[in-house]
C-alpha cells in the first residue's frame, strides 16, 4: 500500500470524504490517506495527526517525498489535539483502531468538533461503541459499509450532526448494515455467533458465580438478537 494505491478499506474510507473537504486524518500513520485524496484532486488541504513518534516521522517523510508539504500539515498530538481552530477542519477520518478507542478520542476531543460536519470512522472491532457515542453526542449515522480484506472484516461508519434512535440490535450490528444484510455482514455475525456459543459452552462448565451468570446472560441476549436475522 502507498499513497497511489490504498488498501481496500482505506479506499472505502476515502470514498466518503466529500469534494473540497478540509480533512484531519487522526492516526494517519504514513499519511497515505491524505496524500491519496490530494493526489486524486478530491481535497486540497489536510492535517495528518499522529500520537506516536515513529509513525509521525514516517508521515513527515512520506509527505515530503510526495511533495505535498504545502497541502498536508503533519502534527504530533494525542487524538483531536492535533487539530487547531485555524485549520478550519470540517471532516475527520479515524481508521484502523478499535471502536472504544475511536469513541474515546471523539469524547476527549469533543471541543475540537465545533466546525466539523462529517466524521468517517473505520473501527476494526466493537463498532457499537461509536454508535453509542454518536447517539449520546448529537451525531447520526448517515452511511455504513462492511467489507472483507485479507480475511478480516471491517466496518465503516459515517456520521453527521443530527439525532436518531436505534434499537438494541441496530446499535450492535448497524442500522444500515442490518437493512442490507450483505454476504460479508452475514459472515461476520455467523462467525461471532459461533464464538459466543463456544464461550457459552465453556462458561456452562465453569463454577456458578455472579460474574459468570451475568456473562452468560449477556451472551445469550446477543445470540438471541443476532439469531433474529441469521435464522431467516
Task: Report a brief summary of the structure.
It contains nine helices and seven strands. By secondary structure, it is an alpha/beta fold.
Indicate how many domains the architecture comprises: 2
Distance between the termini: 39 Å
Spans of at least 5 consecutive residues whose pLDDT stays below 50 are none
Count of alpha/pi helices: 9
Beta-strand residue fraction? 15-25%
GO biological process, one term: methylation
Organism: Sporosarcina luteola
Protein name: SAM-dependent methyltransferase
InterPro entries: SAM-dependent_MTases_sf, TrmK
Question: What can you tell me about this protein's structure?
Answer:
One of its GO terms (molecular function) is tRNA (adenine(22)-N1)-methyltransferase activity. Keywords: Methyltransferase, Transferase. This is SAM-dependent methyltransferase. InterPro entries: SAM-dependent_MTases_sf, TrmK. The chain folds into 2 domains: 8-165, 3-Layer(aba) Sandwich (Rossmann fold), CATH 3.40.50; 185-230. The radius of gyration is 19 Å and the shape is elongated. With 232 residues, it is α/β, with parallel strands linked by helices. It contains 9 helices and 7 strands. Strands 3-2-1-4-5-7-6 form a 7-stranded mixed sheet, sandwiched between helices.
Amino acid at each position: 500500500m502507498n499513497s497511489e494505491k490504498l488498501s481496500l478499506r482505506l479506499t472505502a474510507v476515502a470514498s466518503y470524504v466529500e469534494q473540497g473537504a478540509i480533512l484531519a486524518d487522526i492516526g494517519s500513520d504514513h499519511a497515505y490517506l491524505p496524500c491519496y485524496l490530494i493526489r486524486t484532486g478530491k481535497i486540497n488541504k489536510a492535517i495528518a495527526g499522529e500520537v506516536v513518534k515513529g509513525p509521525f516521522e514516517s508521515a513527515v517523510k512520506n509527505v515530503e517525498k510526495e511533495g505535498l508539504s504545502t497541502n498536508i500539515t503533519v502534527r504530533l498530538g494525542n487524538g483531536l489535539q492535533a487539530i487547531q481552530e485555524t485549520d478550519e477542519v470540517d471532516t475527520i477520518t479515524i481508521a484502523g483502531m478499535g471502536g472504544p478507542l475511536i469513541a474515546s478520542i471523539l469524547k476527549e476531543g469533543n471541543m475540537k468538533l465545533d466546525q466539523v460536519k462529517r466524521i468517517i470512522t473505520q473501527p476494526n472491532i466493537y463498532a457499537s461503541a461509536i454508535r453509542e457515542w454518536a447517539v449520546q453526542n448529537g451525531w447520526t449515522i448517515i452511511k455504513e459499509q462492511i467489507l472483507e480484506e485479507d480475511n478480516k472484516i471491517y466496518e465503516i461508519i459515517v456520521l453527521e450532526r443530527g439525532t436518531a434512535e436505534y434499537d438494541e440490535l441496530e446499535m450492535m450490528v448497524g442500522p444500515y448494515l442490518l437493512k442490507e444484510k450483505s454476504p460479508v455482514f452475514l459472515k461476520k455475525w455467523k462467525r461471532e455467533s459461533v464464538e459466543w456459543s463456544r464461550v457459552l459452552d465453556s462458561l456452562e462448565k465453569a463454577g456458578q458465580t455472579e460474574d459468570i451468570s451475568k456473562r452468560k446472560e449477556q451472551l445469550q441476549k446477543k445470540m438471541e438478537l443476532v439469531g433474529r436475522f441469521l435464522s431467516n
